[in-house]
Design goal:
Four copies of one chain form a homotetramer. Chain A is of the alpha/beta class. In chain A, 30% of the residues lie in helices and 21% in strands. Chain A has two domains: 160 residues, Rossmann fold; 179 residues, 2-Layer Sandwich (Dihydrodipicolinate Reductase, domain 2). The relative contact order of chain A is 0.16.
Chain lengths: 354, 354, 354, 354
């Protein structure tokens, strides 16, 4: 890793795009060579075009960059890896262009998540599914590739389910989310809709994603496709007046019922596979199990492990299934930009970025 | 009902006590003859002693009343019915005193809810359980009586479960609550704990109450005791930054699986039993079923039916159980003061107030 | 007033438009004969097109109405008075059309507020300025007319300044506002911008309006024009995380320094002029002076006098000027739709609606 | 500075106490040798006794410390400097004990702020007033000393006033604050009082402190006393739903009216005196002047300069006085624990800690 890998951020102005810029600041492996924006903002500096909503300052190098169009081309300055915060409808077309043009895409969009040869990756969970990238290239004739990170609510949930499934097998899970407003982007949720309120609805697809993406991530590569795991999830998704940090209430039925001590151990001792354990944005620890009766809480726990750690707490028996617990993860870091970045590091470490 | 029944409010200064005062203003059957307070406030006018936190003004008649001690005695001015907002530990002793002294107590406390001869009443659900009051009097040698209203989160949930159970039988239910801060009383939840946050914990007993109280309310009187119904509930309870209105996400498994149309009908056509249907604080309708994808919401729906209606929405199939839905009810009205008041009306209508 | 006056609401879908519909429900003098919407919504029912954000239900008569274009024409069903919630740039053109077509416009927009022959009216303050309407008609050759209500932050402020100026004369005022999110319309303020935050900026014009509109309203008609009063105001305007209710901190220098008792009396005894005192939406009282150290507060006081009363509190000496106080008024009721409606009533009572 | 100075934190469990512990973690000059608590918590570990409400984790060294009483004694383990977060009534007695016992107290309490021989210090503003410490020792016969940091709202305000006064002289200032809930400690403000609300009242003394403390801090040592400066301030203070960060709207009249360019320069070029400029917790820069129309904002700007920088923005002409602006500073960092710590560093650098 002598020279840094040139990377670009697609849709750098939005709330996930800003996180990409923030987290890429000073990255040891990647160097940002292009930031893209919408038609209106092309040609403006990032400082001028971007309504920066993070509490850290905009990095100086980013402020001076001129926004370019999101389509592949010479303006991308030779980026070999692109981090995409594009909306799904645009991602469908634009990410395809990059894959064809030989560039590897780490996408935060849902556009390609359901394709059987596109991995949905959490490096601390299923880095082995990255092995489908060469298959994807062969099947589709791409010289580049597309890999996705999951829906932000599915993220922390899947990390916890992985630890449980590895230890005890997994049958069924009930899931109710309390999701932060930053998950809806910017401007996103109107303040009139969320002050002194809860919205029991995220969008027409959200619950389906939370029910199906963990199955795919905990599945395995069989032949040319990823075969989903066979457990079932029921999800309710809600929006609450929290800036960052998605919380999930989980009741889980395992293949065999462990003792409380065994579950505690399975969660707190969980380790990422070796290939992803020490990457720059790897979470330390991958799961933090808290023992207080009233944790995790978004305001207090979302920044655990620089926002990459999945925080679990309130582990207790469940009268219907086996155990209840609460899971928290930072939705725009672990669940979006940080997750994509970690995926990019995994691909680089596995020599899958060309 | 020529002369009004003299009533008192115990612990009138707190957040539930204030709702009692507000809802009793102009009541057609009841006349408030005493308001009680803690040691420090006894002898002060209600105006002086009470930090009024409701957006309607304090009723003028209440403002001028002098606070008296909560124990039974001549200062109660002959109240025949008392509405108790006492904390449970104090309720245990004080409510007993009233029952012995011939006064009927409608209690908002949990102190007596688990007693097999004390009914936990929702008049639109189980008014027939009021028939245990004469048994309670005989067994305990009381000339008065104690009846309870349920935990505020169990309230709306039980109304919905009743409609479903009547129509299809009920096996199991998953429940996750998003509860308002007013449920913790005043001062209650510290603002530092809830601004930009969720607390996944209400108190050590809350989930147990939500799991067991619906069983009792949907049970039946057998001999001298109320026998709980045999379905099972798993509950997660959470505090969110909402002033009033508890929301519940419910996944339910019924004895027989109905069509979506049948469930819709069972909920929207639900009627209170005749004895409670037209009482002054009866909810109209008992259940309001909304069809929008994003309702109910606390800010928009908590005042349905003057805060007494249970609002249900987002009815949809569940991948594990049969149906998912969202339930909202106003926690300090239907779930506390309004519920107690409705219980008092039921007892008066059944001639159970001496 | 035998037959009701036919009225229309322009831009009925927005947050102020919804308040118009809500407040016109059951109005004794006015009957809504048309609701207008933007291009996209024309032809849809109000129920379908409108994302209703008020906690009372949408009135049934409104739900069934079909939205028509905002321009004058036969679709207006003979409305003689229109209540306009149009954005200012569109109001400029469309309201002019109505005035020419013989219809009287009560406008919530700022488009015409600076015209010297267009009155900015608060009926409890300056109903005499309505006398310029015939002059406006003559000067402009209109058979209709345009009257405005002031900026929502200037509203409560001007009511208080009027009472003070009548009694003691007025020299200078410092004003800092804490404004509710509903003042920005819907979707308006992004939740990411206001949760756990304050925005010290409302828009490029807001402070200028708050500094100049009270001068005009407390001025007088001289010849064919309204001559502003000669006191000076300095305004800072801020957005806070409050749903409804604009608060203003005021420090005021009067022509002669009264005692605290005299100021108290001037504010609490203030009466609207006779012509506006008993109109259907007249505030009772026009000013409510509270004596608690911590009032007014938006959540507790915004609904005083059905949202039409100006609530003043924290009256105390000022080390630089004469007195400090805090003023609250409901920004979408008294400061917008209710204010326009009250203006319409004034014009009708003065026989200025043709 | 070879060996670290042993220090203690008085009242370490509260919201300011927690900030002291957080900011002292890894301090280059100071080593915490004692944490004190209230009667109930003495003998418990800090981990057990403290309801930690900060989003960073409790430092491990602090978690294991056992809480001791706040009074001076051997349990203080030889602390030479104590940082006091005691409530003012207790501070009056306890801080005196330390001063008599030879220990230097950096107090966050208001108990001694009005004493003419006790300096209220902001090291970037008035480090020269620390020269009164030897006088204080002589006058009172103390071997220790007491120095205070100002009220949290006066803090940022005084930094800005200092820069303005140095350049142009200062006559009068209007000040309206929008203060964060953390300023009231923990549990502090009840959530029912601040969700969807503003409270136009902080406490009976707050406005007086904001009006008088800047006079003292910008005054000078004359003989044995600090003589306040002669400008006048009028303050309104308000509580808003913000977790951290006090905002102040300021209108200022200077001795001579500068151009906008000159004011801009005076604020942005302001430098701390040499003695305090490079201390470990010195703010860099002392004042950050922002040029956007809508900044500073608490959520975005409170962490400028690690929470020590005073952020100024919205500089513009004022119709009554000379200039308007908005000032933000972090109330529990610059305005409390960080301020005290910076004071301690100043005293250590001036060799005033024995």
């Amino acid at each position: 890793m002598n020279a840094k890998i040139p990377v670009a951020v697609l849709a750098a102005k939005g709330s996930v795009g800003q996180r990409f810029v923030q987290l890429l600041d000073g990255h040891p492996w990647f160097e940002v060579v292009a930031l893209t924006g919408s038609d209106r903002s092309i040609g403006q500096t990032y400082r001028t075009a971007c309504h920066w909503i993070l509490s850290d300052s905009m990095p100086a190098w980013a402020a001076e960059m001129t926004l370019v169009p999101s389509e592949p081309g010479p303006v991308m300055n030779g980026a070999r890896l692109v981090f995409s915060a594009l909306p799904s409808d645009i991602a469908l077309r634009v990410e395809l262009g990059y894959a064809r043009a030989g560039v590897t895409v780490c996408s935060n969009a849902s556009a390609y998540r359901c394709e059987t040869d596109v991995p949905v990756l959490l490096p601390e969970v299923n880095p082995e599914q990255a092995s489908i990238v060469p298959i994807q290239r062969r099947l589709r004739g791409w010289s580049g590739a597309i890999v996705c990170n999951p829906n932000c609510t599915a993220t922390g949930l899947t990390v916890a389910l992985k630890a449980l499934r590895d230890a005890f097998g997994l049958s069924r899970a009930f899931v109710v989310s309390l999701q932060a407003i930053s998950g809806a982007g910017y401007p996103g949720v109107a303040s009139m809709d969320i002050i002194d309120n809860v919205i029991p609805y995220i969008g027409s697809d959200e619950e389906g994603k939370v029910e199906s993406e963990p199955q795919k991530m905990l599945g395995r590569v069989v032949g040319d496709a990823i075969l989903p795991a066979d457990f079932l999830i029921s999800a309710h998704t809600n929006r609450v007046a929290v800036s960052d940090g998605h919380m999930v209430c989980l009741s889980v039925e395992l293949k065999q019922k462990p003792s409380l001590e065994e579950v505690t151990h399975a969660l707190s001792a969980y380790q990422a596979p070796e290939v992803s354990r020490d990457l720059p944005w790897a979470p330390h620890p991958p799961i933090l199990l808290r023992s207080e009766p009233d944790r995790p809480q978004p305001r207090l726990d979302r920044w655990a492990g620089k926002g990459m750690t999945t925080v679990v707490g309130r582990l207790r028996p469940d009268p219907l299934f086996h155990y209840k617990m609460v899971i928290l993860s930072h939705n725009t870091v672990r669940g979006a930009a940080g997750g994509s970045l970690y995926n990019g590091e995994l691909l680089a470490a596995m020599d899958l970025v060309k």
